[in-house]
Automatic annotation (TrEMBL):
Role of this protein: Bifunctional aspartate kinase and homoserine dehydrogenase that catalyzes the first and the third steps toward the synthesis of lysine, methionine and threonine from aspartate.
Classification via SUPFAM superfamilies: ACT-like, Carbamate kinase-like, Glyceraldehyde-3-phosphate dehydrogenase-like, C-terminal domain, NAD(P)-binding Rossmann-fold domains
EC number: 2.7.2.4, 1.1.1.3
Superkingdom classification of source: Bacteria
Reported cofactor(s): a metal cation
Keyword line: Amino-acid biosynthesis, ATP-binding, Kinase, Lysine biosynthesis, Metal-binding, Methionine biosynthesis, Multifunctional enzyme, NAD, NADP, Nucleotide-binding, Oxidoreductase, Sodium, Threonine biosynthesis, Transferase
Family statement drawn from the similarity comment of this UniProt entry: In the C-terminal section; belongs to the homoserine dehydrogenase family. In the N-terminal section; belongs to the aspartokinase family.
Catalysed reaction, written as an equation: L-homoserine + NAD(+) = L-aspartate 4-semialdehyde + NADH + H(+); L-homoserine + NADP(+) = L-aspartate 4-semialdehyde + NADPH + H(+); L-aspartate + ATP = 4-phospho-L-aspartate + ADP
GO function term, MF aspect, one: metal ion binding
Organism: Pseudoalteromonas rubra
Annotated pathway: Amino-acid biosynthesis; L-threonine biosynthesis; L-threonine from L-aspartate: step 3/5; Amino-acid biosynthesis; L-methionine biosynthesis via de novo pathway; L-homoserine from L-aspartate: step 3/3; Amino-acid biosynthesis; L-lysine biosynthesis via DAP pathway; (S)-tetrahydrodipicolinate from L-aspartate: step 1/4; Amino-acid biosynthesis; L-methionine biosynthesis via de novo pathway; L-homoserine from L-aspartate: step 1/3
Highest classification ranks of the organism: Bacteria, Pseudomonadati, Pseudomonadota, Gammaproteobacteria, Alteromonadales
Protein name: Bifunctional aspartokinase/homoserine dehydrogenase
Subunit structure: Homotetramer.
Listed PROSITE patterns: ACT, ASPARTOKINASE, HOMOSER_DHGENASE
């Protein structure tokens, strides 16, 4: 025989009742024992009425409304099925409430009687709907034997088994319909099994009759990998072990009452969670073997907790202290959710439900009064508003690194861990955290443990030449990314005046219009709020501006939990302390600071240097052409173009800096050389680089970019002479950067036509690195070192690197 249990949400109105009737009838000619909760909301209302009556307040109007609701259901059922419902005695219930109001007292036994009324109503209605020839009203008080706790009774399985057997034999029927939530003590008085105790009733029944299955019908598809109200991407878990289900329900999973599993586990009856509204879907099966290879099945969270710490010199090495702590709490019926003890035995910490905190404190203070007076025990420390996040999975024991991943995920969510606990079977690992961060913690942990598509959440600052090309590449590469199982979201774009953020992602087709319409400029606090609101776990700020003001904020970006990807060279060429600080804060925060495009645009220059020098190599000397624009300009000069014409063409081709004076002054090359020097271990400042500008410093100063470009032809003559004179010696001019003998220099050099650098033009860069390992022939990198496309591609590659640590 099967046991089927239907919860309150499945019985809320007449339509629901009909659906349940049909589901029962799908059993065909098979017998079934059906356990029913009260119609949705009825038990809560009865509890409220009891409380109002106990306080001597008016409850009558609400009572009236409740009885009207229930009587309306009864009339509907009787009219439809022509069968009189075996209606519970509402008048007796009204008398009880009146008595409570008169006495201003509500003994537990009375309360149990009142609040269990709804279940009897459900059963009366369902028996009438199924017909008395088929269905029998199975009296739960005659079947479930419990202890004397009227409001949170424990079932006595052996005695209940005998009672069930007798009752089923005495009343033969196809369907036994039994009210959930109730039993009776040895005196025959009605007891209740704790809130939502109907699941427990069903499990007890299933265990007692050794049912083939205990089906819990509810309003969700089964047990989820996390609370689906919190986590949109939560998925149904098909199969769990009893242990996994117990851990989950104990630590907050709402779908099952914690006490439900034990009777099933004891007798090996499988338990199945199914959705009344989608009965065709397979539910979640809970059985002896959880099955599946996944190490973590689900995660749950429990909030509104407080942690108490008992500590002091009197604790250390003293036998029986823990026992005294816990028996003091047990005496007052305080349930302990989680316990941890310091390894030096100096303190014991444990969590209780916040509602139990006053009782727990009082119990401990009176138990340790003398020790406290003697200062052997310190005043009990209390931390309120805590939560527990728990990972559950039987297979965790055979996998390494899960705890590390769990704690790293909590760190990623910026959550501080207050305490941790793991049971010795390694089926559950729990962290106590601040309650207000519980949702963040669950979201990040779920993303890391269950979402197998890693995501990168990009905010692009600077949408000029490089930034615009980057957006185009992000759009173009979406399917390439999807094939590689990567979700790359562009959530924000900003220029110097506007910042556009969109929780659905920036629309690729009209991002420029959206940005132009945005009213506010970029503020880090807005991005932080956005990330928090949307629970993003891999946010990346991409700087494709040349703004010093943004570069100065990288430390804050990293500290706020963003990765930083920079095409902008200004942070790495700020003072050396800042350059160092950025690396440190990135390391501390577990975030990446990536800037491959700072030197050689898309060429893999800095990655290679970091690999070489990170593996113990040492730089001996360096020489190369580091400027795409100057490589282009000097090549064009060789072909007969003037300096002003060549510069205009370089600018048009996207090789120059936003302000071409940065190139012609040698500053941009000096920045790149400084970065190479720093990456090689030299603690230099920008002022340490000797710079020979292409055009005199005073010529470049004080005008706008347009004015400068308009006047540049004034330098054409002098430059033509220089080219001419080099040519007469069979040489060409190149803008060369070098590090040799602790001297860093950038400037114009006349090189033989046979020299390797004479060939470098058209925007190409070339770098020759002579090192301990690479000598006498240098390690050489060559390729296009400027231009929107290669630079954006380099930025793109850096963005992808944020997925790896
Ligand atoms: N071109 C190349 O080959 C390479 C370039 N780079 C680097 O890439 C960066 C971008 O170059 P490029 O695209 O040519 O520059 P652009 O001048 O074309 O674009 C710069 C962008 O940055 C924006 N911006 C400026 N200040 C801010 C701010 N405070 N907040 C947000 N956005 C801001 C500008 O906004 P607005 O339009 O409102 O002024 C503009 O959108 C530079 O640092 C450059 O050195 C690196 C390697 C190679
Ligand atoms: N303006 C720069 C662009 C890359 O950093 C150059 O000319 O190389």
């Amino acid at each position: 025989m099967k046991v089927l249990k239907f919860g309150g949400s499945s019985l809320a109105d007449y339509g629901c009742l009909q659906r349940v009737r049909e589901l029962i009838l799908t059993q065909g000619s098979n017998e079934a024992l059906v356990v029913l909760s009260a119609p949705g909301g009825v038990t809560d209302k009865l509890v409220e009425l009891c409380e109002l009556a106990r306080q001597g307040q008016a409850y009558e109007a609400q009572w009236q409304a409740l009885t009207e609701r229930l009587n309306a259901l009864k009339s509907q059922v009787e009219a439809e099925f022509g069968e009189a419902a075996h209606w519970p005695d509402l008048a007796a219930l009204a008398d009880k409430l009146a008595g409570v109001k008169l006495l201003r007292q509500c003994p537990d036994a009375v309360q149990a009687y009142v609040i269990s009324f709804g279940e009897r109503v459900s059963v009366a209605l369902m028996v009438a709907m199924l017909g008395k020839d088929k269905a029998h009203y199975l009296d739960a008080t005659a079947c479930i034997a419990t202890n004397d706790a009227y409001l949170d009774a424990e079932a006595l399985l052996d005695e209940s088994r005998a009672r069930f057997s007798a009752q089923l034999q005495a009343h033969r029927a196809q369907f036994y319909i039994m009210p959930g939530f109730t039993g009776s003590n040895s005196a025959g008085e009605l007891t209740t099994l704790g809130r939502n105790g109907s699941d427990y009733s069903a499990a007890i029944a299933a265990a007692c009759i050794q049912a083939e299955v205990c089906q819990i019908w509810t309003d969700v598809d089964g047990v989820y990998s996390a609370d689906p109200r919190l986590i949109k991407k939560a998925t149904k878990v098909n199969r769990l072990s009893y242990k996994e289900a117990m851990e989950l329900s104990y630590f907050g999973a709402k779908v099952l009452h914690p006490k439900t599993i034990l009777p099933c586990a004891k007798t090996g009856v499988p338990c199945e969670i199914k959705n009344t509204h989608a009965p065709e879907l397979p539910g979640s099966v809970i059985a002896a073997q959880g099955g599946g290879d996944e190490p973590v099945k689900a995660l749950s969270s429990l909030d509104k907790l407080a942690m108490l710490t008992v500590s002091g010199p009197g604790m250390k090495g003293k036998v029986g202290m823990a026992a005294r702590v816990f028996s003091a709490l047990a005496k007052d019926n305080v349930s302990i959710v989680l316990i941890t003890q310091s390894s030096c035995e100096f303190s014991i910490s444990f969590c209780v439900h916040e509602q139990d905190l006053p009782l727990a404190l009082q119990a401990l203070q009176s138990a340790f009064e003398l020790e406290m007076q003697a200062q052997l025990i310190e005043p009990i420390e209390v931390r309120r508003s805590l939560a527990i996040v728990t990972l559950v999975g039987d297979n965790m024991k055979s996998h390494k690194g899960l705890a590390a991943k769990f704690f790293a995920s909590l760190a990623q969510a910026q959550v501080n861990i207050v305490a941790i606990a793991q049971d010795s079977t390694e089926s559950a690992i729990s962290a106590v955290i601040q309650g207000e961060l519980c949702q963040d913690a669950v979201k990040v942990c779920h993303e890391n443990f269950f979402t197998h598509v890693p995501s990168i959440d990009v905010f692009l600052l600077g949408c000029g030449l490089v930034g615009t090309e980057l957006v185009a590449q992000l759009q173009r590469q979406q399917s390439w990314l999807a094939e590689r199982n990567i979700k790359l979201n562009l959530y924000g774009v900003a220029n110097s005046k506007h910042c556009y953020l969109n929780e659905q992602g920036v629309p690729f087709e009209r991002w420029q219009e959206a940005l132009a319409d945005a009213s506010e400029g970029f503020k880090l606090t807005d991005l932080e709020a956005f990330v928090r609101r949307n629970h993003l776990i891999n946010p990346v700020i991409v700087d494709c501006s040349s703004s010093q003001q943004l570069a100065d904020q990288y430390r804050d970006f990293l500290a706020a939990g963003f990765h930083v990807v920079a095409a902008n060279k200004k942070a790495n060429t700020s003072d050396y302390d800042y350059y160092q600080a950025l690396k440190q804060v990135a390391q501390q925060k577990g975030r990446r600071f990536l800037y491959e495009t700072n030197v050689g645009a898309g060429l893999p220059v800095l990655d290679n240097l970091q690999l070489l020098f990170g593996a113990g190599d040492e730089l001996l000397s360096f020489s190369g052409i580091l400027s795409g624009s100057l490589s282009y300009i000097f090549g064009e000069l060789e072909d007969g173009l003037s300096l002003s014409e060549a510069t205009a063409k370089a600018k048009q081709s996207g090789f120059t800096e936003p302000d071409p004076r940065d190139d012609l002054s040698g500053t941009d090359v000096a920045r790149k050389l400084l970065i190479i020097a720093r990456e090689s271990g030299l603690a230099l400042e920008l002022s340490d680089i000797e710079v020979e500008p292409v055009v005199p410093e005073d010529f470049a100063a004080g005008s706008s970019v347009d004015e400068f470009m308009a006047r540049l032809h004034e330098q054409d003559g002098a430059f033509a002479d220089r080219i001419q004179s080099a040519a007469s010696e069979g040489k060409v001019l190149r803008y060369v950067a070098s590090i040799a003998d602790d001297r860093c220099r950038v400037g114009i050099e006349a090189v033989e036509r046979t020299h390797a650098l004479s060939d470098i033009r058209d925007g190409e860069n070339a770098l020759a690195i002579l090192s301990q390992y690479y000598q006498p022939k240098p390690f050489v990198i060559r390729g296009y070192g400027a231009g929107a496309e290669v630079t954006a591609a380099g930025v793109f590659a850096d963005i992808l690197k944020t997925l790896t640590r």
